[in-house]
Design a protein that fits this description.
binds uracil; Aldehyde Oxidoreductase, domain 3; Transferase, Pyrimidine Nucleoside Phosphorylase, Chain A, domain 3; alpha/beta; about 45% helix; 17 helices; Pyrimidine Nucleoside Phosphorylase, Chain A, domain 2; about 15% strand; globular; four-stranded mixed β-sheet
Length: about 450
């Protein structure tokens, strides 16, 4: 049982959730004891969702100090167990993204880095706000189990070199509950909450090194490079303070990564990258992130060497072999690798076409993510089930030329009503201009 703060401070006035909420609402700094109390009691079910939602909203509006953020991260970590993976004979490394649209690199990177001889004990999340989640993508593979008990998680990790699960009742249970609540209460976009959510569960994994992919742009939670850098520094500082090797890459999210948005569609695209093909930007980012992991995990002397090794592992089929093994060990149907039609697919498709001729000047990437949620690919309420088959395939990217009447993107859908609503959002997501805007690099900065 998790010890309660109340028990450890019998001489003091008992804490009340209401007071903790009011203090944050009024913009005052919470103590570590208050934060720990609130997180523990919420995890135990003693603080209800409505009070936690009020507190989250107060944090969104008032922010947190560094000390509060450190205390929250610590409380998230302490809400469950910390894995001891020292029996495995190589470094344990992971990567985590702050969330984007079409952001599917985890499915490629975990088997890729495992093929490079490191261990990747990955604890991921579901869709959050307008962004997709690794767990929802993995669950679109028929039979794939992301809820493995810890014993089995360790077994898969030992056999395959990587294992991919969600937050559990044992590991980062506070994040499991708060993450689902933030998703549906418009309380995602806070660097402090994102830092505690990510670092709490990553530090519980028992890793030696971590690569963070901090997204910036219209499809990210941090819309500009300054905010992304602030979040990156917060997380790198937190990781380093507990002795981990941590690097953060600030990467562009002004358009979906790769061409697909939607769970099963994204799995299909990852399989192409694992076969040495796939969209250029998706492959580039997977290689960059995996290169850093191979370097921080001690397999390569430099990140540059790590990138070359990552390319080799993708092109040789070694990463794909690991992905096959991962699917098999986690109960999924490996037949999808030979026959992608075994993945869920929607009944209908429709094109969204350009109403003028020119170049794609801007894409509102968040709206594209929202359109996928409208189609059923994400949640509006905690209880909502995901439709893994729906989504969007991008036919034009930033800077591409398009003629009036040509396709901008294709919707994969199962309900006319949802498709109409998504189509209206998508039509407004593309701005067509007369001249080509300069191309932005995918990787903006490394911290
Ligand atoms: N990913 C997480 O795990 N948590 C967040 O808050 C955002 C992205």
């Amino acid at each position: 049982m998790i010890p309660t703060v109340l028990q450890s401070r019998p001489d003091r006035v008992p804490l009340r959730a209401l007071d903790v909420i009011a203090k944050k609402r009024d913009g005052r700094e919470l103590s570590a004891v208050e934060i720990e109390y609130f997180i523990q009691e919420y995890t135990r079910g003693e603080v209800p969702d409505y009070q936690a939602a009020a507190w989250l909203m107060a944090v969104i509006c008032r922010g947190m100090t560094r000390a509060e953020t450190a205390a929250l991260t610590h409380a998230m970590l302490l809400s469950g167990e910390t894995l001891d993976l020292s029996v495995y004979p190589a470094a344990k490394v992971d990567k985590h993204s702050t969330g984007g649209v079409g952001d599917k690199t985890s499915l490629v990177i975990a088997p890729l880095v495992a093929a490079g001889g490191l261990y990747v004990p990955m604890i991921s999340g579901r869709g959050l706000g307008h962004t997709g989640g690794t767990l929802d993508k993995l669950e679109s593979i028929p039979g794939f189990n992301v809820n493995l008990p810890l014993k089995q998680f360790r077994h898969v990790l030992g056999e395959c070199g990587c294992a991919m699960i969600g937050q559990t009742a044992e590991i980062a249970p506070a994040d499991r509950k708060l993450y689902a609540l933030r998703d549906v209460t418009a309380t995602v976009e806070s660097p402090y909450l994102i830092c505690a959510s990510i670092m709490g569960k990553k530090l519980a994994e028992g890793i030696d090194a971590l690569v963070l992919d901090v997204k910036t742009g219209s499809g990210a939670f941090m819309k500009c490079d300054e905010d992304a850098a602030f979040l990156a520094e917060l997380m790198v500082e937190t990781g380093k303070s507990v002795g981990k090797r941590v690097v953060a890459l600030i990467t562009g999210m002004d358009q979906p990564l790769g061409i697909s948005v939607g769970n099963a569609l994204e799995v299909m695209e990852c399989m192409q990258v694992l076969r040495g093909g796939g969209s250029e930007d998706l492959r580039e980012l997977c290689i960059e992130l995996a290169g850093w992991m191979l370097y921080l995990g001690g397999k390569m002397q430099t990140a540059e060497q790590g990138r070359s090794e990552a390319e080799r592992l993708l092109d040789s089929g070694a990463a794909l072999d690991k992905f096959r093994k991962l699917i098999e060990l986690q109960g999924g149907n490996v037949g999808i690798l030979e026959d992608p039609l075994l993945l869920p697919h929607s009944k209908f498709t429709a094109e969204i076409t350009a109403d003028s001729t020119g170049f794609i000047g801007e894409i509102n990437c968040q709206t594209i993510g929202n359109a996928c949620v409208v189609l059923g690919g994400g949640r509006n309420k905690k209880e909502d089930a995901i439709d893994p088959s729906v989504g969007i395939i991008m036919r034009r990217r930033l800077g591409d030329r398009v003629a009036s009447g040509e396709s901008l993107c294709t919707i994969h859908y199962n309900s006319e009503i949802q498709a109409d609503e998504a189509a209206a959002l998508l039509r407004n997501s593309f701005s067509i201009s007369e001249s080509v805007a300069p191309k932005k690099p995918l990787i903006h900065r490394i911290i």
